[in-house]
Amino acid sequence: MRLTKRHVIAAGLVAVAGAWLLIRAEAAPAGGASPPRGGPAGSARAEGLAKRAGRGWAAGPDGSSSLAAAGAVAAAAPARGEVPGVPGTGPRPWDARGPGAPLEAASVDVHWVLEQAAVVSPGTTVAIAADPKTGQPGGLFTDGYVLEGKVRAKPGGPIPDGDLRVTLTAFRPDADQPGQKAGLWHVQGKWKVVARDADPEALRARHNPYVVEGRIQDALRVNPAEASGGWSLRASVPTSPAAGRWARSRRGTLTLRPGGGGDLEIALALLGGNP
């Protein structure tokens, strides 16, 4: 048999493969088990892949990468926002159940007494024609109503002395439609209480301890923009920062009385953590 160049190359490859198998067999632990595929190099690669995939893998004591090791590391680490030895720090509101779902910590009935309330703008009321194509009924629409006044909180409430600003829109449909009854003024708007001693620079921040604000939504038989005898509207606070604390409300009332007096009462649920 004549040896060719191809035969020589094949014989070399077989020899290299045999040597590799021999080295692997000598390195294997007793019992024939395969060595772990971890080690510093393998662990570093696994960690890199895990980070790219958004998973919390971590290196274990033996250099391996596992979710169990990641759990041990997470358990030993302080909660986000927590500074050991510093009171008032700890889990942020969104750590427990995700953004926008902080845990309730306490409830307080907030009562601001409204004084010197005045209509800054009565708004404008226009007639809207019905639209046969969309089925939208016609009606009367008021926009641009603005009320301002001073508020003083009864003991225990946030912002002891502040300024109140209320903006409203109202629509009275000529025919019933989903969520609205003909002949009633369906009112929507916003209210905001700003501390009178607020730091102007701090007010520029998205979250600050000087503001509480919320929404207004109700239905009345009279247009609040034209009601000389006063009115009372449902008020609320959505889950949001309120005077430096996460808070929300399930019920509340904003009342305006003749002469510029009134009340803003909110059953406020203060939530764990600060914004």
Could you please describe the fold and organization of this structure?
By secondary structure, the protein is of the alpha+beta class. The chain contains four helices and eleven strands; from the N terminus they run ααββααβββββββββ. It has helices at residues 5-27, 39-53, 67-76, 93-97; strands spanning 58-59, 65-66, 104-128, 139-153, 161-173, 185-195, 211-220, 231-236, 240-242, 245-256, 262-271. The strands form two sheets. The chain has an eight-stranded antiparallel barrel. It has a two-stranded antiparallel sheet with strand order 1-2. Residues 29-103 have low confidence and may be disordered.
Number of helices: 4
- Give the proportion of residues in helices: 10-25%
What global shape is seen? flat
**Biggest sheet, in brief?**
8 strands, antiparallel, barrel
Question: Which stretches are low in confidence, meaning pLDDT under 50 for 5 or more residues running?
Answer: 29-103
* Rg for CA atoms: 34 Å
Please state the structural category.
Answer: alpha+beta
Number of strands: 11
Give a topology summary.
Layout: H1 5-27, H2 39-53, E1 58-59, E2 65-66, H3 67-76, H4 93-97, E3 104-128, E4 139-153, E5 161-173, E6 185-195, E7 211-220, E8 231-236, E9 240-242, E10 245-256, E11 262-271
Antiparallel strand pairs: 1-2, 3-4, 3-11, 4-5, 5-6, 6-7, 7-8, 8-10, 9-10, 10-11
